[in-house]
Q: What sequence folds into this?
């Protein structure tokens, strides 16, 4: 992919001047970041720089935190998600999220995946639901491992499997966008490799934003990378540019391991 | 083994660890010893109350006496039969030669004053035996009961004991004739309270406690859980909710008698609800239990990991769905435990009930929540105040039964917690 700059292009997610305050403390200072469809955008930066806060704005998860205030404009498919007419439940069905620590429900594998379609009423009958679960588990690359024990608890799986179950659960509601908040940080390298491969496949269908502490992971997976530092977005560019030819000295210092 | 030198610091550390362990074990042993002493002393002193002495007497169920008007109607016979005098005359026939008034009184004193009722209930169950000579087991008086159980010293001079020499003589004769027997005291569970220890039972108090706890549970559980869910999951955290939270914690520490005063003033005084009724008792205890349930439920809700909530919100569950599908089911064991412990505490409560008239001598077993009733702890207190010797063991027996009820409830709480406990 070539560098497009800020030329007219149909972005999936557009953010304008996002600021986030936790009470008195400002966590994000005016972020402008646009994400194109079917790309993987990686957010890197040292701990506490606001990467997670930023992606949690996209599906309004920050609403759940007391005293957290988000200002600025976030457009998904040119719709303002903070608009009064925007139903947050529908938004979150459209913008799936995978968390840092695998967090399957303490229910069966089947029920974990079926939960989203059930509450959103996207399936009409049991058969459709079963197909949906099967499809989602297949896309998450978990079907072959669990197809004979769908009734087992989601918690009986290994960490990597649990994380893929969470991905299956997120994609079972047919989202457009997947937000991943350090999805591999609790996993071993082998499970990480499996998830990374999965993300590569998923980008065919979904727009993915991933927060990661692993620069190699960002380099391997993403088309675009944003470097955050202390609540500011220092640099946002094609991943290849960021890692080979960073424009900003702080970015360079971070990716070469001098800070962070 | 090893010639490696242990540094003095390490030695000191080991020693202090050892000392600490010794302190802990000592504390545990002491606690166990106290508990054991308490339980065993109650158990030992309650043993006599669980058996009851009966005397078998020959009764001639003379139809002409029982049914002088020849009605042949069982109900009339039961209602109008001269049961007491029949019991007395049967005793006189069994032990002939008693004529003096004082002696007669001593003779009648062998059996309980409800001897007539025992004959009556025998007839009620065996109406075909009217006109026959039958043998009926009749509860002995409490003094005879104590004597048979060895709780009255025969060697005392006559004026210092409640059983006279004459009674002793008759009793020995009856024992010789094998007419004296001890049975399990079922009356403990199927009789209400009475002034006579040989008939006093706990049925009224047990049913009263159950009715009261029913009212308490019905009121405090839904209100408590809903309040906790609102405060923990829905309410914004601001000064108002902080204020409410502090006051709920304060309520949990309010002396229970204050709730009784409130019940007296508000429910009985203002709303004109019946006195001594499980309805009012239940409401008062519900007020007392509410903070316990709210606090337990909130603690239980707060212990649900936020990752479960995030996961549910993340795929678009509404706040209500998050609560009903995920948070509440996971909090169930904690909520149940808190509720049962709160209810168990309420079941052992006396002070608030004192104010609303449930500390009363009530013979009839209540049938609905507006009937007059008493509860187990109140019954224990009243029996403990009774000067008659037999009430001593009855009191212990009642304590034991209350303890068994409470321990059963707590065991249920533990069982439920273990059953529904899930890991995440």
A:
């Amino acid at each position: 992919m070539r560098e497009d700059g800020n030329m007219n292009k149909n972005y999936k997610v557009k953010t304008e001047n996002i600021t986030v305050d936790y009470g008195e403390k400002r966590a994000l200072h005016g972020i402008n970041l646009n994400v194109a469809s079917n790309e993987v955008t990686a957010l890197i930066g040292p701990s506490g720089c606001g990467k997670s806060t930023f992606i949690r704005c996209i599906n309004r998860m920050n609403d759940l935190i007391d005293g957290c205030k988000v200002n600025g404009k976030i457009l998904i498919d040119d719709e303002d998600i903070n608009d009064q007419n925007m139903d947050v439940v529908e938004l979150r069905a459209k913008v799936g999220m995978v968390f840092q620590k695998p967090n399957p429900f303490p229910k069966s594998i089947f029920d974990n995946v079926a939960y989203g379609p059930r509450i959103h009423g996207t399936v009409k009958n049991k058969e459709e639901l079963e197909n949906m679960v099967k499809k989602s588990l297949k896309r998450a690359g978990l079907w072959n491992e669990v197809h004979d024990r769908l009734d087992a608890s989601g918690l009986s799986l290994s960490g990597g499997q649990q994380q893929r179950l969470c991905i299956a659960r997120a994609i079972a509601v047919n989202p457009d966008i997947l937000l991943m908040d350090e999805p591999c940080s609790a996993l071993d390298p082998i499970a990480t490799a499996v998830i990374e491969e999965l993300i590569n496949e998923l980008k065919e269908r979904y727009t993915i934003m991933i927060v990661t502490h692993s620069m190699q992971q960002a380099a391997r997976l993403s088309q675009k990378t944003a470097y955050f530092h202390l609540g500011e977005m220092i640099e946002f560019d094609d991943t290849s540019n960021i890692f080979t030819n960073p424009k900003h000295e702080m970015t360079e210092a971070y990716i070469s391991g001098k800070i962070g | 083994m090893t010639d490696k030198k242990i540094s003095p610091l390490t030695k000191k550390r080991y020693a202090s660890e050892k000392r600490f362990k010794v302190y802990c074990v000592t504390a545990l042993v002491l606690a166990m010893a106290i508990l054991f002493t308490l339980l065993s002393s109650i158990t030992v002193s309650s043993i006599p109350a669980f058996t009851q002495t009966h005397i078998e007497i020959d009764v001639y169920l003379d139809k002409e006496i029982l049914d002088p008007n020849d009605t042949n109607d069982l109900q009339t016979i039961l209602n109008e039969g001269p049961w007491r005098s029949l019991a007395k005359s049967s005793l006189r026939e069994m032990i002939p030669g008693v004529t003096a008034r004082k002696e007669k009184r001593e003779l009648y004193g062998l059996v309980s004053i409800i001897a007539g009722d025992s004959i009556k209930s025998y007839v009620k169950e065996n109406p075909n035996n009217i006109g026959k000579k039958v043998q009926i087991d009749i509860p002995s008086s409490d003094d005879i009961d104590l004597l048979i159980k060895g709780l009255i010293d025969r060697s005392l001079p006559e004026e210092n004991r409640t059983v006279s020499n004459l009674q002793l003589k008759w009793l020995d004769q009856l024992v010789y004739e094998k007419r004296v027997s001890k049975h399990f005291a079922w009356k403990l569970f199927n009789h209400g309270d009475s002034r006579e220890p040989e008939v006093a039972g706990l049925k009224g108090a047990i049913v009263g406690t159950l009715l009261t706890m029913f009212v308490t549970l019905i009121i405090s559980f839904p209100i408590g859980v809903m309040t906790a869910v609102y405060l923990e999951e829905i309410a914004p955290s601001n000064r108002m909710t902080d204020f409410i939270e502090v006051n709920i914690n304060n309520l949990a520490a309010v002396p229970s008698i204050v709730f009784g005063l409130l019940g007296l003033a508000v429910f009985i005084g203002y709303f004109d609800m019946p006195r001594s009724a499980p309805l009012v008792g239940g409401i008062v205890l519900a007020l007392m239990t509410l903070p316990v349930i709210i606090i337990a439920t909130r603690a239980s809700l707060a212990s649900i990991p936020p990752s479960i909530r995030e996961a549910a919100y993340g795929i678009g569950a509404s706040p209500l769905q998050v609560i009903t599908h995920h948070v509440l089911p996971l909090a169930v064991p904690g909520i149940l435990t808190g509720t049962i412990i709160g209810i168990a505490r309420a079941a052992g409560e006396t002070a608030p009930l004192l104010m609303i008239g449930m500390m009363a001598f009530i013979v009839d077993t209540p049938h609905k929540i507006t009937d007059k009733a008493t509860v187990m702890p109140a019954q224990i207190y009243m029996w403990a105040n009774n000067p008659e010797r037999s009430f001593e063991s009855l009191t212990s027996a009642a304590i034991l039964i209350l303890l068994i009820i409470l321990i059963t409830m707590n065991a249920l709480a533990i069982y439920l917690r273990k059953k529904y406990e899930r890991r995440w």
User: Anything to note?
Assistant: Chain B has two domains: 52-183, 203-420.
